[in-house]
Structures are given as C-alpha cells and as structure tokens.
Amino acid sequence: MEVKVGCNLELDRRTSSELTFFGQRWKQALYEDCNIQRVCRFNGDTADTIDVINGYTFRTTALNSAHVDIVKECARDKDFRFNFCTVYAVAEQQCRLAKSIAWTKSTAASDA
Q1: For the whole prediction, is pTM greater than 0.85?
Q2: Can you tell which superkingdom this protein's organism belongs to (predicted)?
Q3: On the CB side of 84, how many CA atoms lie within 13 Å of its CA?
Q4: Cα–Cα nearest to 58, from 74, 72, 71, 47
Q5: CA distances from 110 to 37, 100, 106 (A)
Q6: Which tens digit of pLDDT belongs to each residue from 83-93?
C-alpha cells in the first residue's frame, strides 16, 4: 500500500533509526487510531519494511486488499496521526516482490 502523510520532518530526510521509530509509531497508530487489533497483518514497523518514495509518501505491505481497505477508511474517516505526522491518503499498490517470487517459482519449476 502507498501512504501519503504530512510530517514535520520529511521522510526522505530521516535516518534508518528514525524510520524504524516512525514505523513503530505507525503500527501503534494502526492499533490506537484505526482500532486494528491484529497489527501483525501489516508491515512498516522497521526501516527495512518501509519504502520511502519521497518526503511525504511511503510504501509498505499488508496481508491483503481487505486490510488495505481498513487503513484507507481510517485515513478518510478518523484522525490518523503518529510521530508528528498525519495520514492523508492510502492507496493499494501491487507488490512487485510477490510477482517476482511467483515468477522465480514458476521458472524454477519449468527448469526442473
């Protein structure tokens, strides 16, 4: 999913440790602001699971489209804030990694 935020410190100016702290707060806000009980179904809690696109946009993954829809609804209907940031929009993005893994498996099977 792609998440657009307004923050006091742009995402692309943060260090790895600052992004990890940002991610921890992201997961906390999913629980507290969005009332999501199973936050384990969402990534983004470490710098390694946050793909910073620019100063105000990042990508991370969720278990499936239904989980992305829950976060979209939260961003639209609630005060969704964390780490001096406000979430303005959430959009589903196709995961390139999943396509790559599927392609690798099918290629490996045909080569066997």
Answers
A1: no
A2: Eukaryota
A3: 8
A4: 47
A5: 41, 15, 6
A6: 999 999 999 98
